[in-house]
Amino acid sequence: TPGHPEHGITPGIETTTGPLGQGVGNAVGFAIAEAHLAAVFNGGGHKPVEHYTYFIASDGDIMEGVSHEASSLAGHLRLGKLIGFYDNNHITIEGDTDLAFDEDVGARYEAYGWHVQHVDDGNDLEALDRAIGEAKAATDRPSLVVVRTHIAFGSPNKVDTPEAHGSPLGEDEIRLTKQALGWPSAEPFFVPEDALAEWRKCRDRGAELEAEWRGRYEAFQAARPDRAKELERRNRGELPAGWDAGIPSFPPGKPVATRNASEKVLNAIAARLPELMGGAADLAPSTKTLIKDAGDFAAGNYAGRNMHFGIREHGMGTVLNGMALHGGILPYGATFLIFSDYMRPPIRLASLMERQVIYVFTHDSIGLGEDGPTHQPIEMLALLRAIPHLTVLRPADANETAEAWRVAIAHHHGPVALALSRQNLAVFDRSTLGAASGVAKGAYILSEAKGGKPEVILLASGSEVEIVLAAQDKLAARELPARVVSVPSLELFAREPESYRNEVLPPSIRRRVAVEAAHPMPWYRWVGDQGEVIGLTRFGASAPYERIYRELGFTPDAVVARVERLLGRES
Ligand SMILES: Cc1ncc(C[n+]2csc(CCOP(=O)(O)OP(=O)(O)O)c2C)c(N)n1
Ligand SMILES: [Mg+2]
Q1: What is the DSSP string of 23-76?
Q2: Theoretical Cys-Cys bridge with 415: which of 30, 178, 357, 569, CB 3.0 to 4.6 Å?
Q3: pLDDT for 34-60, tens place per residue?
């Protein structure tokens, strides 16, 4: 058993927690998923989806900001089947919670719109049972039961002490605790017969409840076989046939921002993929992530598929994880790439759990213009690419964006982040260039060297690909044949067999220049020790994007100059 609960390692663990507060948001995501699926699949006297979501939160969970964000959202959404217990033991690692925390948690949750109860003694099972009954009866709000407990209850010397959190009681204290609690034996792992018999009843009761549920489910299957098949398909996470048939292709000519292309592709996919559900942290108009005519997921309309997470990126990330873990839903969440920082912990956990969550991160470079350096991501791509099991895709044009979505929807192992441009980008003419389907391989030859065997390889992602394409022409005019490789995803490319990687980046061509308007760190492996990276190790600046690109060295001429220097061909 891992030191912290890990989904997929220990049976029965529904989510990986450990970073405090995440579990609360996951629970909110579970409850959202249940509410949505119930709204979509229940009806005609049948309720194939009907369950409660319970969570237990510690002082640390309740203190962490992410639980505030998620709980505020849950209250707003009036998630009546979400029931939490606050393990209010007044102890954290440094000591009494009084050291840093004396707010009225119950009042705070009431202010969020939750139904709040207090149980003064965590060992009073009848009081807890009553509280659960009341919580279930409050169908129009989530419930929090603030339960006063004592850490290391029964231990004469360790009760109510922070040491009890992380260190074992020790043999002597265990003996004393068993004595104090009137335990009949000092033998380790001893379970009295009557306790065992009581627990074993759970098995029978569980079997009975399950049989009862199966009966109800079979009635649903018989009455609505198509809906049952659809629910089962969604729960298995299987894509329906033809899900991608509506994905548009974009003609060359008029430039398109990849965020705008993404909106068209998302909507085309959503029309055939009902499990696709999500939204933005108050940036749907900028991230272009609204599903048209799909309704808002809101109290009173849980069938809606457009989520409004509010300005709560961290909460959004953790709620998305809960939705993905629940099953039956393929969740996406959107914000500016810069604010991926505000949700890194749940991105990391989605990656650790290898759950399918799609992040739409727009405004993906200094190319966003006057918003200036606070909004211009520099290090974010490197940070995201450093997370194991996360796949980052930064498409170069509208057709790469369509392919990036295709990859994201079909990628079931770990989350996918799409980095999209705010500014318009050329739509490449694929009749003369490599096919956009190369996106699935992470990197592909977009344009072979002109006028001979390539002397240099130009690599770029996203908005910088059109810059290296223009540089390629200028280099050709100087009799410097350069191959252009579009690199939408370093992770996907790294997973390709060596033979393919060597085809795209032949080991014999060691002069390579990578261009990305971001921190250069991720590229060094690919350019090698005779290559160079044109990137950014400084913050951006506020100006129209064309001017920033020029001033910070992202122009075809700057690329040409760098290549000439690299090849010792300076004039
Ligand atoms: C985000 C985060 N910060 C810090 C920690 C380290 N940590 C583990 S438990 C804990 C606090 C323990 O107190 P509490 O949450 O009340 O749990 P209890 O010991 O009462 O069960 C801390 C700070 C963590 N796991 N997650
Ligand atoms: Mg505590």
Answers
A1: HHHHHHHHHHHHHHHHHHH-BTTB-SS---EEEEE-HHHHHSHHHHHHHHHHHH
A2: 357
A3: 999 999 999 999 999 999 999 999 999
